[in-house]
Amino acid sequence: MQARIDLSVRSESWPLAQVFKISRGAKTSAEVVVVELRQGDCRGWGECVPYPRYGESVESVIAQAETMRDALSNGLDRLSLQQAMAPGAARNALDCAFWDLEAKRSRTPVWRLAGLEPPQSVVTAYTISLGAPEEMGASAAANADRPLMKLKLTGAGDLERVSAVRQNAPDAALIVDANEGWTPEMVEPYARDLKDLGVSMIEQPLPADQDAALADLDHPVPFCADESAHTRDGIETLARRYDMINIKLDKTGGLTEALRLKQAARDAGMGIMVGCMVGTSLAMAPAVLLAQGAEIVDLDGPLLMAQDREPGLRYEGSRLAPPDPTFWG
User: Fold this and answer.
1) CATH code for 122-320?
2) Three-state SS for 274?
3) Helix, strand, or coil (residue 85)
4) Phi and psi for 293 in degrees, rounded to 5?
5) Over the stretch 262-298, which tens digit does the pLDDT of each residue have?
6) Which residues are catalytic?
């Protein structure tokens, strides 16, 4: 008989290096929830980032995770967790903690448990926070040696913002994220002009409840679903509106569903982007496994913070190494 699994849940606040702005607001810290699962001498842990856009708060996510305490005592495992909880941040932290616990208990890395190939390093995008054109241009100039930048946009003035970045980082590949900030009338003309500025992907141009319009609009560059895409449900519909899908663990509710969604998206002919909320290396570590073979990787959360976990993931410029199994997985 296996030893019982004990649960602990806590919140942490990690200051950012500078204010992080998107179309919906600004933040100065990463507010995260950490779940630990202990079984005998083994500990697994996972981190999630509650997101108000999806009706989540630190308090609500902690409460959701705590509801699993009795179930854990009664034999809840990672697979039964998928039915016991809805997708979201709380399930993500528990799911990733289960994966880590399984790895520590079996002394087998998560990539092998998941039937994946050994992970390699990946190049991550670096995010330029939303601001005035001159602010974004200055940030681009300070990071001009990075191979890939993701620009946060909002609607009016976006072409000037991208132009300023392009002038200050002429060699960088550019992708943009509107965070649902455009109207349907903006999409085609903005997309054509952004293509001329060298932008290679546009993420979530329209609000999720208005994105049906994308099926009937030209796609001068690929469109990527973010807020519209959570789990495998509706993937065929998404494939008619978007060319790519941004898979984030906090949306899928963990690595287990994220791996299934990745395969479903591939089967539907969609490209893969693996993204993140702004969190520490603990939130990024499982996503590095998911990011293997993805067309776009956006796992730069720790690069945006004043301080990360120590030890955490290793970044060399924009190149991110797989997690050390002693840290996670």
Assistant:
1) 3.20.20.120
2) strand
3) coil
4) 85, 0
5) 999 999 999 999 999 999 999 999 999 999 999 999 9
6) 152, 248
